[in-house]
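2024-03-11 09:14:02 DEBUG pipeline.ingest accepted 1 chain
2024-03-11 09:14:02 DEBUG pipeline.ingest length=409
2024-03-11 09:14:03 DEBUG pipeline.predict start
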Amino acid sequence: MSDVLGGAGRILDDDAVRAYVAGRLAAADLDGRSVCVIVPDGTRSCPLPLLLGALHRALEGRASRVTVLVALGTHAPMDEAHLLAHLGGPYPGWTVRNHEWWDPDALVSLGYIDADRVAELAEGRMKRPVEVVLNRAVVEHDVCLVVGPVFPHEVVGFSGGNKYLFPGVAGQEIIDFSHWLGALITSAAIIGTRGTTPVRALIDEAAALVPSHRLALCLVVRSGTGALHAASFGTPEEAWAACADVSAKTHVSYLDTPVTRVLSVVPAKYDDMWTGAKGFYKVEPIVADGGEVVLYAPHITRLSATHPEIEEIGYHCRDYFLGQWDRFSHHHWGVLAHSTHLRGAGTWTPQDGERGRVTVTLATGIPEDVVRRANLNYRDAGTVDLDDFAADPGTLVVPQAGEVLYRLR
């Protein structure tokens, strides 16, 4: 069973965290075994220098070798300077690698989840087999140790745990598959949902095929900082569940009534709209019908660093794709999912076309023609005055947007 250090409303002392990590790893069967440590990339708030420093001390002289694998999903790789700042270190004797999701030689197949089982897990939304592919570094080590935070998430409900395997260090097919399942449910319906959602069930099923011994150090991080509210160590399923309970009390902010407009101030750790779109996902539930979300990010100059096809497809609601599936099914489903997540709820029919529930406006460094071609609204970032927005009683200004979920009571 997993146990929890800390809790909602608490801030953990660094020495207490180090002692917790040392104690839990001392009791784990790691002597003489190789360990693959899976960590988040720079789009997640997490005090990795503190945690990896504690892990390095705990594993020194015990693990036969250690590889740190950065869970990119399909994000852009982190360069050496960014990795050093993100991870801390250096960590003598350890190897640090990006997850090379684009390189077939870096991946290995663990088999398939058959169509009937997929239909069961997906509650009938999908029925086709999916190949379970992930980074071969995971299976080439005796132990897989996930280290990462838990936040409300638009695809799976709450992130963390086995999600660092799938999609974190997985092949593109299962990444696309799991994200499209989430899109069929819709971001607004699944985000912040506790328990085992259909997407979580699919991820856990895939993780059960991993031959390595799986452990996790899950964390609840104060949004936008390196401070920890809680930590939990155990199996990925147990540690995740414990931290998701704390995250649900920590990372969800409730309003009594919907707002007409939200200004989401997107932090610099999101360097394209593919990642910065979290500023929309986390606030969509509180916007009134016909309202607007303005994503303010002057530093963002492109829609996606790694998925240029989003410029061709644009941003549309789920029913736009489902109603014209023959036109879109050949595209990566993960791209289609991202498209629906940022466009939000809406309808499409051949007669009436597409109607979004809310307007999505980009006030970024992305050129106006690119934004409008992608089916989003444009505003010159230079015209955004934070004080003016804050003074408007119908507007909610969200600083450091992207990690805290806003919901109606």
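2024-03-11 09:14:41 DEBUG pipeline.report The mean pLDDT is 96.
2024-03-11 09:14:41 DEBUG pipeline.predict end
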